[in-house]
Amino acid sequence: HRNLQTLSLFGDISILQQHGSISNTYLGKVDPDGKKIKQIQQLFEEILGNSRQLKWLSCGFMLQIVTPTSLSSLSNPIANTMEHLSLLDNHIPGNATLITAVELERFVNLRSLALDFCDFTAEMARVLADSNHVPLHRLSLLVHRVSIMHKSLDSMPEDENWKALTRNSANLRVYIMAFDVKSDDMLRILKPSIPLERIHFDSYITYVSGAVVDLISRQYDKFLTHFILMNDVIDMSGFPDLSDNRNEDPLVLLAWRCTRLSLLAVHGYTVWAHNLIAIARLRGSDLKVLEVTEESIDFDQGELADQDVDPVHNLIEQVSLGLGRPWHAVMDIELLSVFTEPTRHFYREMQSFSEGI
């Protein structure tokens, strides 16, 4: 349609994952000769080729619909005036990417961009930092264990690339979601000059370390507003404790240092009751959302030993006083505002983050 201005497509891969892992074998059963997928790819490229007013193009997890050649269907005038682009698919075979730095050079008017982190290279950062490109306002990056395994982190932007990018885009803010990424990799990824506003960790296999949380609180204290920590690792020995063998709890330090923090959500990590009270007092009413699942909260022996005080009632009372509003723990993980299939959550958050320029 020639008057189409917004094209947003999201493939709900959680439905497919219920049949087992998404693989070429599964897709081979559905479309044995690959004809269906080729037809859909062709239709998608026709839509792009016929577009005359497209400003917003967003494709998330549309399994193999977008190919490395799809964007070449867009005419130069449309690519030159596009304001938002998101291309996300962590099931691309091999190390192929959906967009290259050379292709990105045509998109001189982009205000917001969303990519797989392994596709966002130092060369891309240089293209976006060029003076002929309008300032970028929003950058959303999905760091996925699968992508790191198939691609690598070798081409990612270094700190000087981020510095150059923020010189051209002074109002740039970054949203990162890390899915099952090892702490060692996160320590490599989190360069000091990233203007990181939101970060979300989601895990089924690996934990986030206290060192990563500590680094975030020290490097992004001027920017960070959203911090989400989700862990669904089935470990009968209990939840990991970020404050283990540390004088100060990393989440308390995060609340102390990051004065713009407005959302903190935790599930699957031990949050000590006295630390939760400290977080509420430090950030007060500026912390608009404080969500911690009941099963994540623990009490030290001193709190449990006091016969005159009900520790749960005291926690609710003290956190409510600190925040200046009624508060209670989240009773069921499914009631968490951030609880959803991770790619769906990222896509939804990326859309609202990108629209909020």
Automatic annotation (TrEMBL):
It comes from the Eukaryota. InterPro entries: LRR_dom_sf (IPR032675). One of its GO terms (biological process) is positive regulation of protein ubiquitination. Gene3D superfamilies: Ribonuclease Inhibitor. This is F-box only protein 33.
